[in-house]
Here is the input.
Amino acid sequence: MDTPNAPIPEAAAPPGTPADVNRRLGALLGQIAAGDQAAFAEFYELTSRRVFGMARRVLIDVELSEDTTQEVFLQVWQNASKFNPEAGSPLAWLMTISHRRAVDKVRSSQSSTDREAKYGASSQDIDHDSVSDEVGSRLEAEAVVRCLATLTETQQESVRLAYYGGLTYREVAEKLNAAVPTIKSRIRDGLIRLKTCLGVS
Here is the structure.
């Protein structure tokens, strides 16, 4: 069966409570595992906006984010049968795949950038300003990933769930079994540290 290849639409956010959404997504994953393209299309419609949002936060570059989103849903189509509801919710499983794909894309882009930079240094005809403009956004994305590593473990967890996972303060608090003011403080302090690391005023 051909793998579905849908464009990235302005998809509507999944309706209902998080529990309702996850029940529906879990049912759809079961159907996708059986090769149901209609179920895949609905799953895509319900979640593509979140996946693209996470990719965009990590990668910054729109085209790379679109490519990563398509790769994520290709992985969903191929590996839906591997989803284990006992290990977490369908949305958490999807967001984990999305984050890993985005980070892998950053590393891949950085590796490519390093090769281009080495070639550029040995070429007399290269337009260095053009190269700098082209790779700037990728270097910035790598810097964000690097600076995230400077946060405390609790700050990283809270920031990732809120900004990469697209969760609200309350949803983050419920997931981490912490008070909402505590989560707000962690995220605020984490963002301050990120800005300092990135040199953002």
Q: What stands out?
A: The two ends are 52 Å apart (CA to CA). Confidence is low (pLDDT under 50) at residues 6-14, 112-137.
